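Give me the fold.
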Amino acid sequence: MSFRTLLLAVLLTAAASSQAIAANAGFMVLHEPRPDGLPPVEVGVWYPTDAKPAFMALGSWGHTVAAGAPIVGERLPLIVMSHGNGGFFGGHADTAQALAEAGFVVAALTHPGDNYKDQSRATAMADRPAALSALIGWMLESSPLKAKIDPDKVGAFGFSSGGFTVLAAAGGKPDLGKVPAHCLAHPNNYDCQLTANHPIPAGTLTAQWVHDDRIKAVVSAAPALGFSFGKDGLKGIKVPLQLWKAADDEVLPGDEYAEFVHRNLGRPHEYHVVPGAGHFDFLTPCTSVKGVEVLCASASGFDRVAFHKAFNADVTRFFTDQLVAPAKPLPKG
C-alpha cells in the first residue's frame, strides 16, 4: 500500500468515526425552562443509541425508539424541528427517528401559543423563530445532552408555519404587511382564514425578527407565508437550503409559498416538488386516524409510507452532506 493510499484510508476512517452511527434511536421528553415564570416548553428529543427499540404511540402517530436509553457518540450534530400551526413536537417523529439513527440529536419543540391545545398566539409569527433560537441555546448550554452536541453543527427542519419559522430563523426577513393584499386575492386560503379568525397582533408587524447564525443548514417543507419574505427578505438566507413543495397542496395552494421562495431566493438550493402529495403528507404516517382524519388522509394512489422512506432519506442525506461531511455544492435552484 502506498503512503498516499494509506493516508487516504486513515482520513476516511477518521471522517467516518467523527459521527456515531447507532443501530437505533433513543427518545425522551424534556422541558425547557422559560423566564418570568412562564410554563416550560415541551421538547421531544431523539438521539442515537444502541439500546433495543420498541414501538411507541404519539397521539395518532408513532415511532420505534428506545425510551430513555443512553446516548451513543460524541460531538453529535443537532437538528431543531419546528411544527406547523396547531401541531406538537411529535408531528415529524419518523423523520426525527431516521435522523437519530444516522447519528443526529433532534430536538422538536411544541410551540407555546401555537399548538393543538393552545392557539392564543397562532399568528404571532415572530414568537416562532425566537422560540427556536431559545431551544438551540438551551440544548447547547443547559440540556441534559449538552455535552454530547457539537455547537458548530446545527441544522433546522420546519413544516408549514415551521417551514416559515426556519427560513426566518436562518436570516429571512418577512414583511407581514403583505398579508392583507394576499388575503384579498386569496380569501379561501388557510392562512387567510386563520388570520381572519386570529388577527396578526400589532406588535408582530413591527417585531424584530430573531436570526440565529448557529443554524448552518435548513430544510423547509411547504413553508407558510413564503410570499411575505419578498426578494429582499430572502437575501439574508445564506445557509444551504433544501426546499419541499406538495404538488397538490390543498392548504397552501399555488405559487406564493414554497414556489415563491424557490423562484426568488436567488442562490443555489435543492428544490423538491412531490407529485400527488397534499399538504399534510409531510406529517408522519398515521397509526390511528380517529379525530384527525384531515391530517391523516392522502389522495387516492399516494402512498405516504413509501414517500416518507424517500423523504427521510433525502433529509438525512442533506443534513449529513452539509453538517457532517465536507459541504457539497447545491444544484442551482
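Residues 27-324 form a domain with the Rossmann fold fold (CATH 3.40.50.1820).
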